[in-house]
Amino acid sequence: MTSRSLFLLPGDGIGPEAMAEVHKVIAVMNEKESAGFSTDEGLVGGCAYDAHGQAISDADMDKAMAADAVLFGAVGGPKWDAVPYEVRPEAGLLRLRKDMELFANLRPAICYPALANSSSLKQNIVEGLDILIVRELTGGVYFGEPKEIIDLGNGQKRGIDTQVYDTYEIERISAVAFELARTRRNEVCSMEKRNVMKSGVLWNEVVTATHKARFSDVKLSHMLADAGGMQLVRWPKQFDVIVTDNLFGDMLSDIAAMLTGSLGMLPSASLGAPDPKTGKRKALYEPVHGSAPDIAGQGIANPIAMIASFAMCLRYSFNMVAEADRLEAAIATVLDKGLRTGDIMSDGCQQITTAEMGDAIVAAY
Amino acid sequence: MTSRSLFLLPGDGIGPEAMAEVHKVIAVMNEKESAGFSTDEGLVGGCAYDAHGQAISDADMDKAMAADAVLFGAVGGPKWDAVPYEVRPEAGLLRLRKDMELFANLRPAICYPALANSSSLKQNIVEGLDILIVRELTGGVYFGEPKEIIDLGNGQKRGIDTQVYDTYEIERISAVAFELARTRRNEVCSMEKRNVMKSGVLWNEVVTATHKARFSDVKLSHMLADAGGMQLVRWPKQFDVIVTDNLFGDMLSDIAAMLTGSLGMLPSASLGAPDPKTGKRKALYEPVHGSAPDIAGQGIANPIAMIASFAMCLRYSFNMVAEADRLEAAIATVLDKGLRTGDIMSDGCQQITTAEMGDAIVAAY
Ligand SMILES: CC(C)[C@H](C(=O)O)[C@@H](O)C(=O)O
Ligand SMILES: CC(C)[C@H](C(=O)O)[C@@H](O)C(=O)O
Fold first, then answer.
1. Residues A13 and A47 in one domain
2. Alpha-carbon span A41 to A39, nearest angstrom
3. Tens place of pLDDT for every residue, chain A, 365 residues?
4. Which domain holds residue A29?
5. Do B232 and B304 sit in the same domain of this protein?
6. Boundary (domain end) residue, out of A220, A240, A266
7. Cα–Cα distance for residue pair B352/B359, rounded to 1 Å
């Protein structure tokens, strides 16, 4: 029997509630389809800090490195607002990304038909929207050195962060974007601020060269990141795949997610390079939404983004394409039936709990 | 008679066409109100590069430094895409900001009632929207050193930009935001990425301290910049004044502008510190839109943002509050009459040219 190892890091806030629903999906797939998933669970974020003073322990890092795939919930909350910078909840996530070398962050922004109406944008602007943001995840201002606060005396301090990109980093992320575009509408738009940033000049140059050398069949365009943000709001359907750096990707993918009106529904995948021998790639899957501490523990959170992240895991880590399709179809079915958690509730629908949503999706699978 | 010196830098693309309409407003104010405006004109951006190989000449920089206020059109266009980084069109604007020490960029995002319908957002989300983004403009990743591309050999290059903020820079921009909030709805939201950036940690700390020491009557909140972008799209009316750094301000103010559906209408002001002796502050006023090379020279561009920038100039540089109010009212009147340039055209309205729009506003003034 196949054996597939999953390492689960539910984290803080609504993370554990959402992850509990993924457990149900895993159980059903093991039972009915002999999928052979084995699971182990660890701590990340504020709960890890509470347990052992670190945002993720070395032991859990080892397990994450060894697993076939990591499922990640969410981290953070007001409880840990004052913990030291180095051990703040986000540090756990950033360490996972960096140590596992998960340089490619895939963030689909899809508008579920049943929810087109719940966007703050006009329905015709977002209906049928399906874009993919490919964000560089292990470089840029997130990790560049120096990154420090210096005391200058006289009551003055200096905060410094460094944006750094090397050619190979830009090359590999743009290759991922071009490859994915080939499976979609074959268009990539690259976004940077080359009019202000030297890293943007290099970004533009390397994306252009990679395109020319290896992907000239894909349609490539370039946009300044600020103009890109505007265009996302104005007419998002003009885009297929957007490739951009870590910080712009953070901003732009969140905006794209919000456009869809489906924030509680959107998954993401963070992938490493395929191992040259086995072809396997390290991977972490997480919902785009955060830990939502204000509603945590009440059983009302929307588990769909977490379950959809598991669907991405089936697709990208285990090549279980049929199962991924079925799971995504199950989500759509449940929404079409009018079942809703509170965050996506609207007139004429039926409001259900986190657990009921998980059950309904499992039943529709 | 009062004498008020304006230095005009129309720049590239639609800049000159838009500036021509401001000339009409100035003429009428001089004639009918003895406003005493004197004007001189210079080159900036691509046209300056064409004329003398620099994005702005030292002579024009001197004039900008000496004038009571600078009116700036727009810079850039495909013609100059390949000019060296140091003399690219944007370098002229960046030099003006830096040498004039225009650290406070005020970007109102207002939804003109007559245009509420033309936003990509639902009408109830943007109707009546009135937020002010206060963007730091002379620091951060725009100007920090090192800023370079290094050749690493082996076909590898490294692009580096540096985000730097000192305490005093954060203090003075947050003071501007708090002061402006007092003249509005008394609320400031500060945005950074303190969960990832050390400059964000310092930003948060200094804004909080400035608030406590001098502005505790103003309501202050903090938001991560990515969440802030989302909230702008979800429910922008939750904000009054937003204060943020140079790069986040670039992204967020463009998004806010696009929300309003009034991009061709939005002005901005870039202000220096008041001179300790005279109380005067250096200032530059520019429309939020760019040079729009695709429609330049056709006489169809919307001059309203440029004229509204002049209204801000009346308000902030010359304390001509009544005149600014009248000019803004004239713009609203013309829109209420259904007169529109092509970019904001809609059913039942009358499409007019750039010059006709300028004439109509002057007539309504
Ligand atoms: C939690 C935080 C560190 C993270 C980021 O900034 O990358 C989050 O906003 C995201 O987009 O995954
Ligand atoms: C033209 C460019 C340098 C500029 C910026 O990035 O600041 C523009 O986008 C703006 O917002 O004024």
1. yes
2. 7
3. 578 999 999 999 999 999 999 999 999 999 999 999 999 999 999 999 999 999 999 999 999 999 999 999 999 999 998 999 999 999 999 999 999 999 999 999 999 888 888 899 999 999 999 999 999 999 999 999 999 999 999 999 999 999 999 999 999 999 999 999 999 999 999 999 999 999 999 999 999 999 999 999 999 999 999 999 999 999 999 999 999 999 999 999 999 999 998 888 999 999 999 999 998 999 999 999 999 999 999 999 999 999 999 999 999 999 999 999 999 999 999 999 999 999 999 899 999 999 999 999 999 99
4. 1-103+272-365
5. no
6. A266
7. 10
The conformation of residue B275, written as its DSSP 8-state character, comes to P
Q: Whose CA is nearest to atom 8 of ligand 1?
A: A250
Residues B151 and B249 in one domain: yes
A166/B158 touch (CB, cutoff 8 Å), yes or no: yes
Assess whether the C-beta atom of B223 lies below 6 angstroms from ligand 2.
Answer: no
Strands (E), A94-230: 104-110, 130-136, 144-153, 156-166, 187-192, 219-224
Query: Minimal Cα distance from B231: which residue of A?
Result: A258
Q: What is the CATH number of the domain that holds B156?
A: 3.40.718.10
**Cα of B134 from ligand 2 centre, angstroms:** 14
Q: Between chains, do A199 and B250 touch, taking CB under 8 Å as contact?
A: no
Say if residue B15 is in the same domain as residue B155.
no
CA angle (B146, B151, B152) in 5-degree steps? 105
Residues of B in contact with A196 (CB under 8 A): 90, 94, 141-142
CA dihedral B159, B160, B163, B164 (to 10 degrees): -160
User: Does B90 contact ligand 2 (Cβ within 6 A)?
Assistant: yes
- Identify the domain boundary among A266, A298, A321: A266
Domain check: are B321 and B238 in the same one?
no
State the nearest Cα–Cα gap between A29 and chain B, in angstroms.
35
Nearest chain B residue to A140 by CA distance is B160
Number of structural domains, chain B?
Answer: 2
Shared-domain flag, residues A311 and A286: yes
Judgement on whether residues B220 and B283 belong to the same structural domain of the protein: no
Using a 6 Å cutoff on CB, does residue B196 contact ligand 1?
yes
Q: What are the CA-CA distances from residue A59 to residues A8, A42, A55, B47 (Å)? A: 14, 9, 12, 61
Atom 11 in ligand 2: residue holding the nearest Cα:
B250
Residue with tokens 């301290």: B209
CB-hemisphere CA count at 13 Å for A242?
Answer: 33
B157 → closest Cβ in A167, A247, A250 = A167
**Can B40 be counted among the known catalytic residues?**
no
